[in-house]
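Page 37, continued from 36.
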């Protein structure tokens, strides 16, 4: 089982996170709403990400939400990216690449991932509303940027259709889970190889 535990404490956030890459998409503890980022909308997005990627996830975050959710969202992205990096070890046997196109009602999102060791985010997503509930919609990009930098991955996110801000962000997180699940899956034919001609990622 590829698992990780991350504790990240700064002057802005205190985060505790557990991750199992080879899970069933369970949130721990099991009751609904058990992820505690401080933002109900962000909890919902993280739960969708975990369930669609089949990653088991437990998270608590105490952040400076009295300011806004910027530090909370960014630091959770960083912590989750670090957890994936820890759980993957030397990246031996993974498929490395993942790509998915996901519809959410009128919204359509495409994501392609390369766990390359080279952090790069191409984020082409147009979200009409500035907020969904009390969550600033621009923070979805900050989460992805924090994750990508921490893991060391190239990620392209393309918004192909959609006008409902909730649907667009939900499609992004679901699609990200699905594409990442492909990328971290073990390739049984080459389970003892690092998927790079360099011999290292």
């Amino acid at each position: 089982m590829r698992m990780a535990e991350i504790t990240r404490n700064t002057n802005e956030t205190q985060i505790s996170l557990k991750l199992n890459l080879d899970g069933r998409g369970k949130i721990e503890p099991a009751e609904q709403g058990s992820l505690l980022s401080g933002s109900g909308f962000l909890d919902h997005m993280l739960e969708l990400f975990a369930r669609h990627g089949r990653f088991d996830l437990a998270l608590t975050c105490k952040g400076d939400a009295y300011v806004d959710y910027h530090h909370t969202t960014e630091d959770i992205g960083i912590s989750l990216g670090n957890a994936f990096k820890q759980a993957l070890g030397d990246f031996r046997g993974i498929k490395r690449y993942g790509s998915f196109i996901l519809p959410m009602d009128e919204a359509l999102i495409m994501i392609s991932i390369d766990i390359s060791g080279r952090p790069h985010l191409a984020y082409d997503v147009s979200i009409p509303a500035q907020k969904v509930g009390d969550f600033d919609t621009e923070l979805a990009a900050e989460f992805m940027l924090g994750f990508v930098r921490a893991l060391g991955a190239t990620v392209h996110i393309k918004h192909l259709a959609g006008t409902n801000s909730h649907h667009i962000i939900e499609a992004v997180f679901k699609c990200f889970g699905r594409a990442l699940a492909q990328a971290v899956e073990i390739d049984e034919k080459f389970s003892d190889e690092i998927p790079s001609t360099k011999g290292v990622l």
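The domain at 3-190 is CATH 3.30.230.40 (Ribosomal Protein S5; domain 2). Flag for discussion at group meeting. The chain has a mean pLDDT of 95.
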